[in-house]
Amino acid sequence: MVSTSAVRVLAALAGAEFRRYVTYRQATLAGAFTNTVFGFMRCYVLLSVAAATGQAAGYTSAQLVTFVWVGQGLFAVVNYWGQQELPERVRTGQVVSDLLRPVDLMAGFLAADTGRAAHAMLTRFVVPVVAGLLFFDFYFPTHAWTYVLFLVSTAAGVLVCSACRYLVALTSFWLLDIRGALMVWVVASGVGSGLYFPLPVLPDWVVTVLWVGTPFPALMQAPLDVLVERGGTGHGLVLIAGQVTWLVVAVGVGRVVQRRALRRLVLQGG
Amino acid sequence: MANAYFRLLAAQVRSQTQYRLSFALDLGFSTVLTSLDLVTLWVLFAVNDNLGGFGGKDVLLMVGIAAISFPIADLVVGNTEKLRFYVRSGLFDAVLLRPLSALGQLVAMDFAPRRVGRVVQGTAIYVVALAVAPVQWSAPVALLVVLAPLAGAVFFAAIFVAGATVAFWWIDSGEISNAFTYGGKDVAAYPMTVFGGLFRRVFAYGLGFAFVSYLPALAMLGKSDPLGTLDWLRWCSPLTSLIVATLAGLFWRSGVRHYRSTGS
Q: Which of A5, A132, B67, B261 could lock onto B122 through a cystine, CB 3.0 to 4.6 A?
C-alpha cells in the first residue's frame, strides 16, 4: 500500500520538475513557436485533403482544424520525444545514487514527468491553440462535459506515454546506448498515435490493429477524438477505458522489466 | 589539413559503430523515418487523389527532390545543431583554438554515419519519381534534374547553419531552427498551392522554400505555377540557394565574432 509520505515525496518531485521547467523560458518559447509552425503546415495539408468533399475520413474541416491545433499543443504535453536523463545515468553509473533514494525508480520517473506535463499544459499547449484559433475556424465541443473528458483523456495519455518511455529508457540496462531503441519508439509513436495524420485515414484493419494491439493511439488520437466528439460521448468513454487499460499494461510490464534490469545492473566505472 | 578532418570523421564513425545493435537499429529506423513522409503522402492521397490541384505523380516528384536534398544537407551539416552544447559548455573555445575552420570541425566532430541510409533512400525515391512522373525531357530539364537536388541540399545546409548560429545569441533556440529545417523540409515537399495566406507568403516565397522542389518540379513537368510565379523563376533554384548560402555564411561569421565563452 502506498503511504502518505510516499505520496508527499512524489508530489514534491512533480513540483520540483514543474519549477525546473518554469526556468527554461527560452526553450519553452522556442518549442511553442515550432509547434505553431508545424500546426500551420499540417492544418493546411489536411484542409487541402478535405477541400473536395468538405470532410476526410469522417472528420469535417472544422474537426480537422481542432484536431491539428490541439494535437500540436498536446504534442508538448504528452512528452513523445523529450530528452531522457535515465539512460545517460545508467551508462555513467550515476543511476546508483537514484537507487539509493527511498523512492521507487519508476514512480519517481512518472511523478517527475507529471510535473513537466502540468507545466507544458499551461504554456506550450496554450500557444499553438491560440495561434490556431486566430487563423482558423475550430470545431467546439457541443457538450460541456466533453472538456472534462478531454482533460481526463489527456492525463491518461501523458501517463501511458511516460510509462512507455520509461520502458524505452530501461533498455539502457541491456544496450547502454539507447539511440536505436529510441529511434524505434520515435517512428512507431509518431505514426501510430495520430501525430502525422488522424488514424482513420488509414485502412480500417490497420486502425483496428493499432487501437487494440498498441498503446500508441492512447497517446494522442484518443484525447483528440474525445475532444472533437467523434462517435459521441459513449465512444469517448470507451476510448478512455482503453487508455486506462493500456496504462495498467504499460505500468505492469514496466515493473517486471525494472525488476530484471536492476538485478542485472553492473555499475560502469569506479 | 584534409587529413585532420578525415581523422576526426573516422574517429566518429568508429565510436558510433561500437554499440553494434544500437547502431543497426538506429540506421534502420532513421531510414524508415524518411519513408514516413511517403507513407503520409500516400495515405493522404488515398482519401481524395488530389493535393492542392496536383495529381499523385506530380507531387511524388516534388517529394522526391525534397527527399534527396534534405538528407544530403542533414548528413553534411545536420550536426551543427550540436553547436548550442558547445556554446553552453564553453567547449567552443577548444574549437576556435585549433588551426582548422570552426564550421569544418563542427561538421567532422559530430558526423552521424547513420544518416547515410536516408540519402540512399531519398535517391531511390527521386529516381522512381523521375521514371513515373510525366517529365518533359529536354537538355535544360536534364540539367535541372541533376542540379535541383544539389541546389536543394545547399539551401537546407544554409538553413541548418543559420539555425545553429542563433545559438550564439540564444542558447535554447534549438527548437526554433527545427521549425525551419525539419518544418521546411515538409513544407518544401508539398505543392505550395496547399498552403494559404500569410504562411505561404512567408515560408514558400519569403524564405524561398518554393524554390527547393516545387518550382523545379514544375519546370520539369512543363507546368506554370498556378500561383503566378514567373516561368523563368522556376529554373532559378541554384541561384537562390547560392544567395541563401551566402547570407547564412555571413550570419555564421558574425555569430562566431559574437561568441564570448562561458566565463566559468
A: B67
Domain that holds residue B240: 2-258
Mutate to test the interface with A, among B84, B172, B192 (most CBs of A within 10 A): B172
Q: Is residue B264 part of a domain?
A: no
Query: Cβ–Cβ of B197/A135 closer than 8 Å?
Result: yes
Q: What is the pLDDT of residue B175?
A: 80
* Structural domain boundaries in chain A: 4-263
Residue pair A76/A121 in contact (Cβ under 8 Å)? The answer is: no
Chain A residues within 8 A of B176 when measuring between CB atoms: 30, 33-34
Q: How many CB atoms are located within 10 Å of the residue A241 CB?
A: 11
pTM for the structure as a whole: 0.87
Q: Region A130-157: what's the mean pLDDT?
A: 95
Closest C-alpha among B194, B61, B173 to residue A41: B194
Tell me the per-residue pLDDT of A175-209, one tens digit each, with 9 for 90 and over: 777 777 888 888 888 889 988 889 998 889 999 99
- For B198, residues 6+ apart whose C-beta sits below 8 A from its C-beta are none
Within a domain: B209: yes
Query: Is B20 part of the contact surface with chain A (CB cutoff 8 Å)?
Result: no
**Contact flag B46-A201 (C-beta cutoff 8 Å):** yes
